[in-house]
Amino acid sequence: MALKMEPKNDLDFIMKNLLAGGVAGMCAKTAVAPLDRIKILLQAQSVHYKHHGVFGGLSAIVRQESLFALYKGNGAQMVRIFPYAATQFTSFEIYKKYLSVLNIPMVRHGDKFIAGAAAGVTAVTLTYPLDTIRARLAFQITGEHRYTGIAHTAVTMFRTEGGIRALYRGFVPTMVGMIPYAGFSFYCFESLKYLCMKYLPTTLCRKCERNTGGLVLTVPGKLVCGGLAGAAAQSVSYPLDVTRRRMQLACMDPNTAKFGAGMIKTLTLIYRENGITKGLYRGMSINYLRAIPMVATSFSTYELMKQLLHLDTGMKVA
User: Fold this and answer.
1) Rounded distance, CA 179 to CA 137, Å?
2) Which residue did the predictor score with more confidence, 12 or 42?
3) Radius of gyration over alpha carbons of the chain, in Å?
4) Comparing C-alpha atoms, which of 202, 199, 204 is closest to residue 226?
5) Rounded to the nearest 5 degrees, what angle is found at the Cα of 207, between the Cα atoms of 202 and 210?
6) With contact defined as beta carbons under 8 Å apart, do 196 and 204 qualify?
7) How far apart are alpha carbons 286 and 40 in whole angstroms?
8) CA neighbor of 71 nearest in space, from 61, 79, 83
């Protein structure tokens, strides 16, 4: 009889989840880094690219800057994403574990959403300054560099823009947006995973006696569940993502400084000046192009890493 996939102790469980989550985040973000950069430029309406679409913008970056410019700011992204993803996935597992023992009906039915939202908030709080730095570096155009690297960006912002508050500019809309985004991401993935194991055990799953329930998602199954979860979560939280970017990049240009005043004012300004489609949901098409493969890759890599590290990726199927 096969042994269950059980970690040796709590520390072993945490360390393995941190590694699995960090690797998953790095793989996912590297895969969509070019789309991530053009999304930032479109969201913030860079004067150089605001009249371009997704593919026109990507082509213009290569033509006007270089092929490597598609990955501008990715160094800061990698420095941020490993601890962010590691913290998020590990926090989710811990919160889910403790919420499962609570005998509260409302919590019991929404434990995946609550655990996911709490995990997202935990991860963002710890790594937010690196996201601001990465956005500043990605927004720069060749020949107009204000910052030379991660450390220089952090020091310059700290000295000239108001100290630690500058590094956390846009933090409130990020928190507000992270709750539905992370909550729906994990909730949808776990729910779709359950449905696949219950109703499609021979199509998108395969047998794994060491797992709870005796099943594990196949790679296509992981990708389908992750992609659909990413699409659902982004649809709900995208306007707050646009608001966050506008606030983070407000001080890069005197004409956009007005967007650094606060979350509600920034949301209102974006809506008044550009409306819903061209303002609050600007860049949404590219966001689907990047979010679906990114979240699919992230969840798939995380599940694969857990399997390699002998952690349980199954669930009870009634």
Assistant:
1) 26
2) 12
3) 20
4) 204
5) 155
6) yes
7) 10
8) 61
**What is the chain's percent helix, strand, coil content, to nearest 5?**
75, 0, 25
Nearest to 183 by CA among 297, 91, 262, 80: 91
Residues 77-124 pLDDT 10s: 787 889 999 999 999 999 998 888 776 665 666 899 999 999 999 999
Burial of 85 (0-12, 13-18, 19+ CB in 10 A): buried
Q: What is the pTM of this model?
A: 0.78
Query: Which amino acid makes up residue 84?
Result: Y
DSSP state, 276? I
Give the bridge partners for 206, in sequence order: 216
Strands, E assignment, the chain: 205-207, 215-217
AA identity, residue 239? P
CB 155 within 8 A of CB 90: no
Entry field: residues in the chain: 318
Tokens, residue 101: 């023992």
Contact 267, 243 (CB under 8 A): yes
| Nearest Cα to Cα of residue 183 among 139, 239, 265, 122 | 122
DSSP symbol at 3: P
CB-based contact 75:140 (threshold 8 Å): no
User: How far apart are alpha carbons 258 and 169 in whole angstroms?
Assistant: 13
Output the six-digit token pair for 226: 């992750």
Cα 158 to Cα 139: distance, rounded to the nearest angstrom: 18
